[in-house]
Amino acid sequence: MDLTYHEIKEQYRSMQQTKSYLDGQMTEISKWIKTRRYTSLIVLGCGSSFSLAKSLARMTHMKTGFPSTALPAGDVLLHANRYIKSFEGALVLAVSRSGSTSEILLALEALKAQNCQFTTVTLTCREASALAELSDMNLDLPWAYDHSVCQTRTVSCLYYAFAYILANLTHDFDLLADLDEVIAHGDDYLDQIDALLKNYAADSWSQVVVLGDAELCGLAEEGALAFKEICQLPSNHYHLLDSRHGPAVLINEDTMILAVLGPHNDYEKDFLQDMSKKTSHIIAFTDKPQESDSVQFMPYHREISHIAKGLPFIQICQLLSYHKAIYRGTNPDAPTGLDAWISL
Fold first, then answer.
1. What pTM was computed for the model?
2. Domains contained in the chain, CATH given
3. Which of 80, 81, 113, 211 is 20 to 30 Å from 7 by CA-CA measure?
């Protein structure tokens, strides 16, 4: 069994460990958040963690209205002197699998060297990391660390961790119940879709478009990145309806479209119906089964919130990219020219 496949299939056990760990940390986390005043939330990341950061920032802003943004750490590093006003008084969440990503470490150091005052919380998957030493509070999920180069389980668990924390802080008991539901039924769902995705991987598509909106925009972008890294095919993420404004021009019969649909999805389904005239490779992830001659709907068979829906959807992207890598004879564990983390 390839390491990537094993880590994809282990995700829900790792999420359960994450839940148990966070239950023991929530009192301290709540104290940190509620007893201090911050000007904004800034989520820093690189690569997969930057894509993830976009969803975490969007999730926070949509649920609370609190000013929240995601920034690539490399950008901040190169322009630290011009980012000082953005970071002054902020709560900075630095997200990193390794806790050793150079751009994040150097960006934080560059800001602090200019006496910029902010609070740093780090979310990593390695204990006693260099990033933890720079933080005011560190949350470690070592059981979620992916040993393959491409992140799968790590991304899902980091996303789950933030969603779980935010749901607790905002007393969103429906979201907490949905996250529990996803863990409880996750392994069964992965088993249900595995063979189906393996069959789709054998179809004759050679580029990918991943469509996702709202809180899932960054996670869908990470889904597109999985195709670049795991099976090494060109891929892009777009917002669903925004795809009509230019990106649709490049969709053709060689394109696989993966879309996660919202609860009121007539406009989304109309767009996919239009795209079915350009490609026969369309998979749409939905709550419930839906009928179509030209779009392959992949239902979850349960109604869950849009935030929780991101977890099974990212695994559809990961599994399909894995099976496509095997079909193409590409090593999913160690793509050429890519390291697990970057050291400058």
1. 0.95
2. 3-175 (3.40.50.10490), 186-328 (3.40.50.10490)
3. 211
